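Good day; I would like, with your permission, to put a structural problem before you. What I wish to show you is a protein chain and, alongside it, a tokenised description of its three-dimensional fold. Thank you for your consideration; the sequence and its tokens are set out here:
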Amino acid sequence: MLPGKSFDHYFQLLLPALVLPAGILAAQLASASVSSRSRVWLFRLTPTLVAIGLVVLQLHWFIASPRDRAAALHPAGFFLNVVDDGAAIKSLLRDDESMYAWCDEPELYLLAGKRPPAAGLWKMHTIDGPVASWLTKRTLDDLNRAAP
């Protein structure tokens, strides 16, 4: 079930509806009454033009730094803040220290170079959902056994 919002990655659902007619068109072009020399030229030129067009459309993403790409994709800067916080946590903790972050950004563990000490990685899963009470209890048990 869709959450009622439109996200860019939903457009991938249109790919079959676009690829199938393109394949049918390519098959009809292949069987059209065009000389075999023109047909070979057409089949070599078309994918080349498509590839060049895709490169031109996406080139700005390849030459931008990862930080610039993240800022362009997420103008609020939230993901950059998470990256900065992960680096700050890594610099604060010693190798023998652990951490627990009760949030919805489990990537902080990766960025800080630490392993999560408890089962509850996402705050939202400990608050709501079919296993919330079990996961909360398991997380508290884990944290009592090995406090960060």
